[in-house]
Amino acid sequence: MKGNLKENLTPETHTIIDTIIRIGADRMNAQVQLQWWGDDADGFIKGYEFTFDSLITSSTFWNFTKKQDSTFILSIPPGKDTVDFTFYVRAIDNLNMPDPTPAKLGLPVKNSAPSIAFVSGTNNPIISFPVVKFYWKGSDPDGEENLLRYELCWNDTTQTPYSLDVSVSSGTFIATTFTTNNPACSVYANNDLTAQATLMNGMLLNDTNRLFVRTVDKSEAKSAYISSYKIFIKKPSSTTLLVEGYSSPAQSATALTFYSQNMSAAGVTAFDTLNIFQQQAGVYTQLAPDNLTESRIFSLFHAIIWFSNDASKSLSLGQRSLDNFFNAGGKLFVAVYVSSSFDEQSTFLDFTPAQSLVAYSDTALILSDTSSVFAQQAGYPNLKSNTIISNVKPFNLFPGAVPIYDANLIGKKISTNFLFPWSGASTVMAYKTNQSGQVNFIFSSLELQKIDGLSNATQLFQQLFVQEFGL
Fold it and tell me: Which of 233, 256, 287 lies at the terminal end of a domain, its last residue?
């Protein structure tokens, strides 16, 4: 076969449209979707190259793609509201020949301001010690990739805002000192265990607070500030915390009065209180948004005295949020009512001195209104019930745990109501020690206000909290 080799024909490139005319508010968002195609008279198209360089030169960098469409986030320079971008695209044929006359498209772009909203947590306390957490989410009509940072202020948006990276969607704010009502606070991004390098000002202790936040995009356009719900931030006044976990207001008030009066009578007059399970309209008012935040709150204190009529909720929360408290040398007392519905297969007891509950089929254990509770350790007074407790849960001890009280219980066959003297395990209060041999956890399956028939609770409190805990 003879003849002259025909010269390769260059490909042609096309865009869906070749001209966009938009002015003023009708300009395009910074997020644009573009489409193109090419054809080659003597071969086929193997791909495309595109650039946003405003002027094509020999040094222009071309981006290769096999796609015929893509979505781009056009970066508007800081401080500018509108920009005219130029998009060039050229087809590449099977012999690597580019279209010498690339398709060109002008893009009149207007930046769109970003927006932001607070995100509700699992719990949203309206009263808290100075460890508080908020969640938020920014958005941008030009695409979330166009967001740059968040800016935050406590209570006053005229102050210089505190900046956080756009990757941060929540923040925990912890006061650095309690010697002033206007402390700086450490900021923990997301679930970080290390604080940001810079402190944040503006938090108010013993006062109502609001967190203001806005988002800023890459062109420095800012959303309006939005405000969190109001939260009263309490200043700790001591290193001892009374955690009251009763569900009804009447029981709550009775229990708190009993503990407060006997603590004071025993010589412990400085303590703070936390109504951990208080609710308003079915919503917790003081429970932290998550376990990490609750753990940080508990770690503000050296001793925690926890009393509740719900063992499941109290022990479950304590198990998930007290590790750091114990690791810092904290001492915990827990007295809870263990109901018949308590899941004995749960792991809630694993961190307590109680290895397991004493349970027998068809048997309930009763403490009558005149039953004695006998001290097993020197210094502790004998006690007596002042009410009938129809469901008592004594417990078996973990190795190394030490019994403090055994109860004089009555057994009852549930199926026949037959009563009989109980001769099995009857420990209802015990302690365990830390690695230094110090008592650091005392657990009672009886509520103390129900075993004050001898009116000697103050003597008990002195032994528990002054002698054992050193308060």
Answer: 233
Task: Sort 77 into a burial class: Cβ within 10 Å, 0-12 / 13-18 / 19+.
Answer: exposed
CATH number at residue 83: 2.60.40.10
The tens digit of pLDDT for each residue in 187-246 reads 999 999 999 999 999 999 999 999 999 999 888 889 999 999 999 999 999 999 999 999
Q: How many CB atoms lie within 10 A of CB 356?
A: 13
| Torsion angle of the four alpha carbons 110, 136, 131, 287, in this order, in degrees rounded to the nearest 10 | 160
Q: How many domains does the chain have?
A: 3
Comparison of pLDDT for 41 and 403, the residue scoring more: 403
**What is the span of the domain harbouring residue 206?**
115-233
**CA-CA distance, 395 to 111, in Å (whole number)?**
67
Cα(181)–Cα(402) distance, integer angstroms = 43
* Among candidate residues 211, 233, 255, the one where a domain is terminated: 233
**Tens digits of per-residue pLDDT, 59-98?**
999 999 999 999 887 777 766 677 788 899 999 999 999 9
Residue 150 lies in a domain: yes
Strands (E), 57-114: 63-65, 69-73, 82-93, 103-110
pLDDT in tens, 291-349: 999 999 999 999 999 999 999 999 999 999 999 999 999 999 999 999 878 877 778 89
Other beta carbons less than 10 A from residue 155's beta carbon: 16
User: Does residue 119 form part of some domain?
Assistant: yes
Q: How many residues does the chain have?
A: 471
| CB of 309 closer than 8 Å to CB of 279 | no
Residue with tokens 């412990």: 268
Q: Which two tokens stand for residue 278?
A: 């208080």
Dihedral through CA 16, CA 19, CA 22, CA 26, nearest 10?
Answer: 0
Question: Does one domain contain both 452 and 316?
Answer: yes
pLDDT, tens digit, 9 for 90 and up, residues 357-412 = 988 888 999 999 888 999 999 999 999 999 999 899 999 999 999 999 999 999 99
Looking at the structure, tell me whether residues 367 and 294 fall in a common domain: yes
Half-sphere exposure (Cβ direction) of 32: Cα atoms closer than 13 Å: 22
Q: How far apart are CA 377 and CA 294, in angstroms?
A: 34
